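Sequence in, structure out. Go.
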Amino acid sequence: MGNVVRFLLTLLSEKCLQNNRKNMKFLLGTKQNMTQIFDAEGVVHPATVLKTGPMVVTQVKTVETDGYNAVQIGFGTRAAKNINKALKGHMKDGNFANLVEFRVEDTSTFKVGETVPVSFVAGDVVTTTSISKGKGFQGGVKRHGFKGGPRSHGQKHSEREPGSLGGGGRDGGRVAKGKRMAGRMGSDTITSKGLTIVGVNADANEIYIRGAVAGKRGTLVEILG
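Output:
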């Protein structure tokens, strides 16, 4: 019974979050580097620098045509030779590097081809979503924090080995699904909530978010507020 209640609460929370996101402001940017920002009281804040740019509406979706209200945004540029004809026609001969869709409550204010203005200001609390750094194939010690084998006499090559993987009982002598083992690490979609914008530089098209944002330099970052 407890599992059913937790499942229903999870669905309810996800539904509420989806409904709240419909009325959120949105912004796209690429991660640059980290820096320090001093506020009016002289307090220093570690901040991540995000490079913004023109966000152009490439498609408007409505309930009548697509079953839901959303707006598709084109951001960044890439070489025209790397865009096929179908995508180039969809983007109206644009050369956008990224196409990102956002759910909105009202699509009447968006027109295909127009530029979406940046409406964030310092002090806004936002949620960021980006892809974390890829770390390649890693062992269990680095990937999951395993302590490894004992450092005692008789141990030669097993200090960082994961140990036994199978077992009796419910596993039935096999490796259970979801077993923590060595494997590819990183390149995960990371969502960070409750981050604060500590500065906006409109002249340089830069926005400064307090704290760390997942990803390497050049990673696309979605910002919801």
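Check: The chain has four helices and twelve strands. The CA atoms of residues 37 and 45 lie 5 Å apart.
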